[in-house]
Design a protein that fits this description.
This protein is an alpha+beta fold. The protein is built from 14 helices and 15 strands. α7 (289-301) packs antiparallel against α10, α11 crosses α13 and α13 crosses α14 (431-442). The longest helix is centred in the N-terminal third of the chain and has 16 residues, at 53-68.
C-alpha cells in the first residue's frame, strides 16, 4: 500500500517512474504486474532479463550524473543580429560552473528576521536625498583638483556614462564565417557558453537557427561574432561552433544540439613560453626510446580509468555544510573531514616500481637530486673593505650633534641607513621612523 500510495503521488506530479529489478544475472523478472500497477501501461506481459542489470546500472549512473547538474540560464532574449535588420532570439546557458557556498543573509539578532539594506545618497550642500537621475560624476579634471584647474568641470549623469560606454547594442552581431580548423585549443580562455534558440521571445527563431546550424555542420564552418552581454560591457570576439545531437543506443539524448560560444583571446593573451630561453633554457634534450617507454608505463599504472569530477567532493564545501548541519542540530562539528583531493599515498606505494623506473630512466640510476628541497639562496655578504668604507662614511657625520639640534631629518635616507647598518639597527620604515630610531639609540628624545 505504501508503494502504491507513493507511486500515485509521483504520478500526480508528472514524475517519471522506472523499475530496476535487483535480481541475479541468470534469472528473469516478471514485469507484467508492476508495469500495470505502477507504470500504468497496457503492454503485453514481458520479462526482464537479469543479464541486462549491469548495463542498466551503468546507464542509471550516467543519467543521475546528467540530471544532478542543472544547466543555468545566463540570459534570455539575446538578439543575434545578421545585418539589414534581420535578427533572431537565443538563450545562453552555462553548461558547467563552479560550486560555491550559498549566499548569506543579514538577520536581526533578536528574532532572526532577515534584514534589507538600502542605500541613499545625500547632497553635501542641502542635505536632500538624491535620486539616481540627479547623480553626476566628474571626469575631467580630477575631483580633488577641480578648484585649481584652469578648465571647467565636466559632469556626466549615470545615463550619459552608460551611453558613452555602450559601443554597440547588447547581443550578438555576426561578422563572418571561418573554417572550424582555424580554432585552436589554446584559444579557449574560459568555459564556453551554450546557445539555443528562444522561440518564446521571438517567433521563428528556432527555424532560422536550425537552418544555420545544419548548414554550418555540413560545411564545417564556425561563425565569428561580436558579443556584448550587458549595456556596460565591452564587446568581445566569440566563435560559435555548431554541436550535433548525440543519442545513446536507447535513444536517450547525451549531447543536445546547439552552438558553443567560445570566447576568443586578445593578441597578448596568447603567449609562447617555449620561445623564451630564460624559461626553457638554452639546451633542449630529447627523450630516447627507453625514457618514452618508462613514461608510458608510468601513465598506464597511474591511469584513473572512468573518472568524473563529481567523484571527488569539494572539501571546503563539504566542511561548510557539515558545520552548518552540526550547528542546526546543536552538535559539535567533527574535527576531521575526508579530503579526496589529497594524493593517494597507498596507491602510489603500489606503483612505486613504475615511479622509480621513470625516475632512473630520466635522471639516472639512484639520482635523488631533483626530489630534494633546495635551500633558499643566501644574501651576499659585504666584504671587509665595503664594511670599513661604510663605517668611515658614518663616522664623518656628527649624528649626535644633529640629533641634539633636531636636524637629523635634513640628512638623506642613505646616510641614515649607514648609521643603522654600523650600529646594527633595523633599516626598514619611512624616513621619520629611521630618524626616531637613531635618536632613541643616541638617547636623545
Amino acid at each position: 500500500e505504501q508503494i502504491l500510495s507513493r507511486a500515485q503521488e509521483l504520478t500526480e506530479t508528472n514524475a517519471k517512474l522506472d523499475i530496476l529489478p535487483m535480481i541475479p544475472q541468470d534469472q528473469n523478472f516478471d514485469m507484467s504486474f508492476w508495469s500495470a500497477v505502477l507504470l500504468k501501461t497496457d503492454e503485453d506481459q514481458w520479462e526482464y532479463e537479469g543479464s541486462n542489470i549491469p548495463d542498466r546500472l551503468t546507464d542509471l549512473a550516467g543519467i543521475i550524473r546528467h540530471k544532478a547538474y542543472r544547466k543555468r540560464v545566463l540570459s534570455r532574449d539575446v538578439r543575434w543580429s545578421f545585418g539589414a535588420g534581420f535578427e533572431i532570439a537565443v538563450a545562453l546557458y552555462a553548461m558547467i560552473q563552479p560550486a560555491v557556498k550559498g549566499t548569506y543573509t543579514y538577520v536581526k539578532a533578536q528574532n532572526n528576521e532577515p534584514l534589507r539594506s538600502e542605500t541613499a545618497y545625500i547632497c553635501n550642500d542641502t542635505g536632500a536625498v538624491l535620486t539616481k537621475a540627479n547623480l553626476t560624476k566628474s571626469l575631467f579634471p580630477n575631483p580633488t583638483q577641480y578648484r585649481t584647474a584652469r578648465y571647467p568641470r565636466i559632469l556626466l549623469t549615470t545615463e550619459e556614462l552608460q551611453e558613452i560606454k555602450s559601443v554597440q547594442p547588447k547581443g550578438l552581431r555576426l561578422l563572418g564565417f571561418k573554417s572550424r580548423s582555424m580554432l585552436k585549443h589554446y584559444h579557449q580562455l574560459r568555459s564556453p557558453t551554450f546557445l539555443y534558440p528562444d522561440e518564446r521571445s521571438m517567433s521563428g527563431s528556432t527555424q532560422t537557427f536550425i537552418a544555420f546550424h545544419a548548414t554550418m555542420l555540413k560545411k564545417q564552418r564556425m561563425a565569428i561574432c561580436s558579443f556584448v552581454r550587458t549595456r556596460a560591457a565591452e564587446p568581445r570576439l566569440v566563435a560559435l561552433l555548431p554541436q550535433e545531437e548525440e543519442v545513446d543506443e536507447f535513444g536517450v539524448q547525451v549531447t543536445p544540439p546547439g552552438m558553443n560560444m567560445v570566447y576568443l583571446p586578445y593578441s597578448d593573451d596568447v603567449r609562447q613560453p617555449e620561445a623564451d630561453t630564460s624559461f626553457t633554457g638554452l639546451s633542449h634534450p630529447k627523450a630516447d626510446a627507453k625514457q618514452v617507454e618508462a613514461a608510458e608505463h608510468l601513465l598506464s599504472k597511474l591511469n584513473l580509468g572512468a573518472f568524473a569530477s563529481s567523484d571527488i567532493p569539494n572539501p571546503t564545501l563539504q566542511r561548510h555544510y557539515q558545520v552548518l548541519e552540526c550547528y542546526a542540530l546543536n552538535e559539535p562539528p567533527p574535527e576531521e573531514i575526508n579530503d579526496g583531493t589529497k594524493p593517494d599515498d597507498e596507491g602510489m606505494q603500489k606503483n612505486m616500481e613504475a615511479i622509480i623506473g621513470f625516475r632512473d630512466a630520466v635522471y639516472g640510476d639512484g639520482n635523488d637530486d631533483d626530489y630534494k628541497v633546495k635551500p633558499a639562496a643566501s644574501r651576499k655578504r659585504k666584504s671587509a673593505e665595503e664594511e670599513q668604507d661604510v663605517k668611515q662614511q658614518a663616522a664623518a657625520i656628527d649624528f649626535k650633534g644633529l640629533a641634539t639640534d633636531g636636524k637629523l631629518g635634513k640628512l638623506t635616507v642613505n646616510d641614515l641607513k649607514k648609521y643603522c647598518e654600523v650600529n646594527q639597527l633595523p633599516k626598514s620604515g619611512k624616513k621619520d621612523d629611521i630618524v626616531r630610531r637613531i635618536a632613541a639609540h643616541l638617547g636623545i628624545h
